[in-house]
Amino acid sequence: MLPLLLLLALALALATKVPGAPQVLTNKHADARQNSEDKKHLRRALELAAQALGRTSPNPCVGCVLVDGATGEVVGEGWHVKAGEPHAEAMALSRAGVRARGCTAYVSLEPCNHFGRTPPCSHALLKHGIARVVVGMVDPDARVSGSGIAYLLNAGVPVTLGVSDSCYQACKNLNRPFLHRVTTDRSYLCLALPAGGTASGSRLGPLLPKLLAQAPEVDTLLLTSRQLLDLSATALHEALLPHTSLLVWHARAGAGAEAEEEEEVSKRCFAALQDLKVIEGSARKVRYLPSTTSPTLTLALKATAKQGCNGCLLVHEPTSDNDKGEGEGEGESEGVGADAKDAIKSGLVQKVLVQGEHDGEWSAVSLK
Ligand SMILES: [Zn+2]
Predict the structure, then answer these.
(1) Which of 17, 96, 126, 338 has its CA 20 to 30 A from that of 220?
(2) In whole numbers, what is the pLDDT of the chain averaged over residues?
(3) What is the CA(64)–ligand 1 centre distance, in A?
């Protein structure tokens, strides 16, 4: 449900921020025909945005449609392809050229208002003479958080926010990992629990593409160094989609010299794979979480957001001394290792995929 009170509160906050701004935020256009047009174009902006689902970390997925207010003609479309590339609005404006002047811009997420790797989209929309902006939802990122809308309102550009409950919900659903990271400072984590509790080596390789397909919203595969060592370079190459990042975490399995040895081996393995350009050619980014800074699963999961990962997929691999899950009356977490149970209980996991014992098929279980 789109919280109307929240919208009104935001409108008031923005109005006080920009005294004299003539425009008022609404959650739908007063004109029924215009409201139906707004929904249609915002849905299209969402479709465009979804093309880059799971590829934009640390940025969100955003789509933009520019429509000529007089003729209803779409004159430019754009979406954010990946971090470092132009934002959705910039792509649509460049495609529309001079035809952008006087258009309504439909953007699935509030235009940014800060100078990053690209100039602010709020400024670009104004510069190109956009006459009205329809925004799917406010960007809760502290660097935006209403300031993109405020900038446009202050410049006299009317802004419609939200359009409908279902559009708002669709905008939120599309960016679940991004929204989770910017509001909680934690990556959205999908935990896969293979039947039998463990899946390493030959079993893990074929599972990865299936799992990544079940969690299209995540963009990073989080492997333990043990899992990396068990995987053949070919399996890894085949598993990783061109846009999937790889984050390797060294899970401390032993103690003292044994642990150091394992870390050294996994580092060498990792370096060798990079040298071969096997991973580099197939993954967008490869990073490493050493056990020194992330000695436990909980700390490793907390560190992923600082690595700029909106969403991660982890295939659970119980560590030797804590895999005796109690499982008494725990429902779906029965048989789960203690470390994974802790991660679920402490709210670090947002999605759990379980594999059926008999059919081997994966399904998502709900977390309350
Ligand atoms: Zn932008």
Answers:
(1) 338
(2) 80
(3) 10
